């Protein structure tokens, strides 16, 4: 039997999490930010997990999207999601900034859950449908789905970095993952380096020939691998921050902070890849040595709770909270704390107001597929004010050359960049911001999806 959707998104998570009877909240992370507007503008459906264990829900419509829940048991959440996806693949693909866990039990759960997603997609897809599979949690789905439904056009996009052979070789299931991805017609990466790492590994590990970005399989099929840097809904943020209530809220935020000369801002999932500790260290040292005067600057760090039962994330939370406490304890005064740390998730309006209130946006990942926060900040600054401090190790650095680029491991360099961003002239800032905005307004998320889908369907 064939299903009814001619366009299908398959992702680990649905764009909303269930938080109570009939109540939904937007799920965290860049994947959802990018893909939700793409589906809202097209006829189609989204297959994914509703965010809590043992939820068996019927398909439903939400915010202009048709959503098809795939259940995960408590043990699958532990072994497939927290385990293989986020304790094995996530650290391995992000330069092993934390040590990956290799365990056969986790791998077995990953395969089982990938099979479930493939079966759900096979049931929902109409004849010759386009199915677009997302991210590292589902790398086996392309081949499993092709086996079930050879009529489909299958695309895969990896939102995180794809590592070089030197790291990927560690993975005991390295061949299986490559073979899984090769079930797609088109495999998309954030950066050209990810695509070439993949092509090289297919040659070295599977002995496959390639011509430019086309990989030739033994059965005659051809799989293309290419870079498609993901982006944000520029228009949504650009118009949001022009609304009077957001402008008002931005002013209010500055006054709540005590109207400092400079507001620095970090917005991230609380993840060890984001370099939050490095940026706090740099800020703390600038205060301690007097480069920033007391009361001159406030650092606001918003950190969304993320993967809270994974050990490395618990450790990170403790270490960031200790660091914030130290800086405020040593450098603060009664009623004035230099770092405002919030372990919370915020709505779009509040985020937009924060972006508008911030003089310096500090984005310092140790490794990041793209980093949409950097692009959201730019989308909000139609006033051509504001400076972006951006890590060289974020995919976004390829496009955003006019940012204050930094190596986040180099704390002195980070301090210099933060100070330079704080002290830059309005003329310099507007020149940089104009060029950054030109890039993001042209290459927005719509353009990204169009480019990928046009290539997939060609
Ligand atoms: P990642 O996908 O690794 O989380 P990105 O920077 O690419 O990193 O995307 C993060 C997304 O999550 C952005 O759209 C950002 O606005 C959103 N986000 C991050 N922190 C928060 C927060 N505290 N509250 C609400 N949304 C957040
Ligand atoms: C990153 C990943 C996404 C993931 C998101 C949130 O953006 O690339 O696949 O959905 O983080 O992480 P979570 O584990 O909460 O889904």
UniProtKB/TrEMBL annotation:
Pfam families reported for this sequence: Glyco_transf_20
Gene3D superfamilies, per this entry? Answer: Glycogen Phosphorylase B
Q: Please give the InterPro entries that the UniProt record associates with this protein.
A: Glyco_trans_20
Q: In which family does this protein belong, per the annotation?
A: Belongs to the glycosyltransferase 20 family.
Q: What is this protein called?
A: Trehalose-6-phosphate synthase
Q: Which organism is it from?
A: Streptosporangium pseudovulgare
């Amino acid at each position: 039997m064939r299903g009814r959707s001619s366009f299908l998104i398959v992702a680990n998570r649905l764009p909303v999490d269930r938080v109570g009877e009939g109540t939904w909240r937007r799920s965290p992370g860049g994947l959802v930010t990018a893909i939700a507007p793409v589906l809202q503008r097209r006829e189609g459906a989204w297959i994914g997990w509703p965010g809590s264990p043992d939820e068996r829900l019927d398909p439903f419509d939400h915010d202009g999207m048709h959503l098809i829940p795939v259940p995960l048991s408590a043990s699958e959440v532990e072994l497939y999601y927290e385990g293989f996806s986020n304790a094995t693949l996530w650290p391995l693909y992000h330069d092993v900034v934390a040590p990956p866990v290799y365990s056969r039990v986790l791998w077995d759960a990953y395969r089982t859950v990938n099979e479930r997603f493939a079966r759900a997609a096979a049931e929902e897809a109409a004849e010759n449908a386009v199915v677009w599979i997302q991210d590292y949690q589902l790398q086996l789905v392309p081949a499993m789905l092709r086996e079930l439904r050879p009529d489909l056009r299958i695309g895969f996009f990896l939102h995180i970095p794809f590592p070089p052979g030197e790291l990927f070789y560690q993975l005991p299931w390295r061949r299986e993952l490559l073979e899984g991805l090769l079930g797609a017609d088109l495999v998309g990466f954030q950066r050209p380096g990810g695509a070439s790492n993949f092509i090289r590994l297919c040659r070295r590990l599977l002995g496959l020939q390639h011509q430019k970005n086309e990989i030739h399989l033994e059965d005659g099929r051809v799989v293309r691998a290419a870079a498609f840097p993901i982006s944000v809904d520029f228009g949504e943020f650009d118009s949001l921050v022009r609304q009077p209530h957001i402008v008002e809220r931005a002013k209010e935020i500055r006054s709540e902070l005590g109207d400092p000369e400079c507001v620095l801002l970090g917005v991230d999932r609380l993840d060890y890849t984001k370099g939050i500790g490095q940026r706090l260290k740099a800020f703390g040292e600038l205060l301690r040595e007097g480069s920033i005067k007391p009361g001159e600057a406030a650092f606001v760090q918003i950190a969304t709770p993320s993967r809270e039962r994974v050990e490395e994330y618990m450790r990170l939370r403790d270490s960031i909270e200790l660091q914030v406490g130290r800086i405020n304890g040593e450098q603060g005064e009664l009623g004035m704390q230099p770092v405002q740390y919030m372990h919370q998730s915020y709505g779009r309006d509040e985020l937009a107001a924060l972006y508008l209130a911030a003089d310096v946006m500090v984005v310092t990942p140790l490794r990041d597929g793209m980093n949409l926060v950097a692009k959201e900040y730019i989308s909000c600054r139609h006033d051509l004010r504001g400076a972006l401090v951006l890590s060289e190790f974020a995919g976004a650095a390829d496009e955003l050359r006019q940012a204050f680029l930094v190596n986040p491991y180099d704390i002195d360099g980070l301090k210099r960049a933060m100070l330079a961003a704080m002290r830059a002239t309005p003329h310099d800032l507007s020149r940089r911001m104009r060029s950054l905005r030109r890039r993001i307004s042209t290459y927005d998320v719509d353009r990204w999806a169009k480019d990928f889908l046009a290539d997939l369907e060609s």
